[in-house]
Each structure stands twice: as C-alpha cells, then as structure tokens.
C-alpha cells in the first residue's frame, strides 16, 4: 500500500509538473479586461482578443493585424485562430529593450523553468522505478538506491526551489495573481514532497 501511494503521488507530481511548467497562466490579471484575456508564463506574457471588436470581419483581416504587430521591433509574435488574435512577447526580448522589471521576470522564469524541469526528471525516474516493478518489468533495477533516494526528495525540492526563485524575482505591486499553471506547479511540488515524506517516515506495514 505504501508503495502504491508513493507511486500515485509521484505520477501526479510528474503530470501536474509538466502541465505547470508548460502552462501559460502562472500569473493572470486580478480583474477581467474588457474584450481581452491575458496572462504570463514562466518566460513570456500574452494577450488574446477577438479582432471583430476592432472591426475585423474575417481571418484574413486578423492576419493583417497580426502581421502589423509582429513587424514592430520588440513587439513579439502574433497569430490568429479565426478572428481571435493572440499576441506573445518574451521577457528576455523586453529585457533587451531596457525594461528592468522584465529582466527580473526573465531571470525568475529561468530559475523556475530549471527547477520545474529538474524536478520533473526526478519525478519521472521515481515513477518508473516504482511502477515498472509492479508490472513485472525489471528495467530500473540497475538504478542505485542512493540515486533513487536523492530523486525522491529532488522531485518536490527542486520544484520548490524553482517556484521560490520565480516568486522572489516578481516585481513589487502589480495587479496579477497566481493562475492555474502556478497552482498546478504548487500541487506537483506538494505531491513530490509528500511522497518523499511518506517514504521517509511511514513504515511499509502501516
């Protein structure tokens, strides 16, 4: 039972960690923007709007707006899905343009990305180590026990370090709150640390 619980928690850590790391809603506006949606990922910020409200009546007109946006230096990328325009700009590009807050966000995003993906790799290793033997596959038997123990703690701990590094680099103030991707990353971190704590402090026969 202990092994099954740890395997399930490690698998959730892996899945939620991937969804969080790849998600685009680490931060979202606290108040809805009329006619527009937006948010930030670890590395960029984005905004989405329906160009019908700007007078565009077809996808081709939306593409014209997207091309005009993309041609502006440092504006980022834009693409259309029907008449819905999505604009994305990376924090590193904004940093190159001299925006100090974006430089902090770029640094925080890099820390968060490294921490999250390092934790994901550990979660994958632990999940395979626990799940494959249950299916009668001994492919992971060659992994040393000390490596497995380090990875068990590393999954949640590395995600926690990444999230803290990202959080402490956020600019003061602002009107953004933690979004779904951030909550998923937090849940993944909690699952990783919870699995490690169970493995460390709960006996196998309890």
Walkthrough of the structure:
By secondary structure, the protein is an alpha+beta fold. The chain folds into two domains: 2-29 and 99-201; 36-95, no CATH class. It is 59% helix and 15% strand. The chain is built from six helices and six strands; from the N terminus they run H-E-E-E-H-E-E-H-H-H-E-H. The strands form two sheets. Strands 2-3-5-4 form a four-stranded antiparallel β-sheet. A two-stranded antiparallel ribbon has the order 1-6. A hairpin with a 2-residue loop joins strand 4 (77-81) and strand 5. The chain is elongated and about 65 Å long. The protein starts with a helix and ends in a 5-residue tail after the last helix. The model has no long low-confidence stretch (mean pLDDT 90).
User: H/E series, N to C?
Assistant: HEEEHEEHHHEH
Low-confidence stretches: none
Distance between the termini: 8 Å
Q: How many distinct folded domains? A: 2
Task: Choose one word for the global shape.
Answer: elongated
Annotation keywords:
6 strands, two-stranded antiparallel ribbon, alpha+beta, elongated, 15% strand, four-stranded antiparallel beta sheet, 206 residues, single chain, 6 helices
Short description:
With 206 residues, the protein is of the alpha+beta class.
Annotate the secondary structure layout.
Elements (H helix, E strand, L loop, with lengths): L1 H21 L4 E3 L6 E5 L3 E7 L8 H13 L5 E5 L2 E7 H6 L3 H35 L10 H24 L7 E3 L1 H22 L5
Antiparallel strand pairs: 1-6, 2-3, 3-5, 4-5
């Amino acid at each position: 039972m202990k092994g099954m619980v740890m395997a399930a928690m490690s698998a959730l850590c892996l899945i939620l960690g991937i969804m969080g790391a790849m998600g685009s809603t680490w931060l979202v506006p606290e108040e809805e923007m009329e006619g527009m949606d937006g948010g930030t990922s670890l590395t960029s910020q984005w905004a989405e709007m329906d160009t019908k409200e700007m007078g565009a009546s077809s996808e081709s007109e939306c593409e014209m707006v997207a091309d005009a946006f993309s041609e502006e230096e440092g504006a980022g990328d834009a693409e259309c899905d029907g008449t819905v325009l999505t604009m994305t700009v990376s924090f590193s590009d904004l940093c190159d343009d001299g925006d100090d807050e974006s430089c902090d966000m770029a640094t925080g995003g890099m820390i968060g990305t490294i921490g999250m993906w390092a934790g994901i790799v550990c979660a994958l290793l632990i999940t395979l180590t626990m799940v494959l033997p249950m299916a009668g596959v001994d492919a992971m038997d060659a992994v040393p026990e000390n490596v497995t123990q380090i990875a068990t703690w590393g999954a949640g701990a590395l995600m926690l370090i990444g999230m803290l590094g990202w959080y402490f680099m956020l600019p003061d103030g602002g009107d953004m709150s933690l979004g779904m991707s951030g909550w998923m990353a937090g849940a993944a971190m909690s699952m990783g640390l919870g699995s490690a704590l169970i493995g460390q402090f709960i006996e196998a026969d309890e």
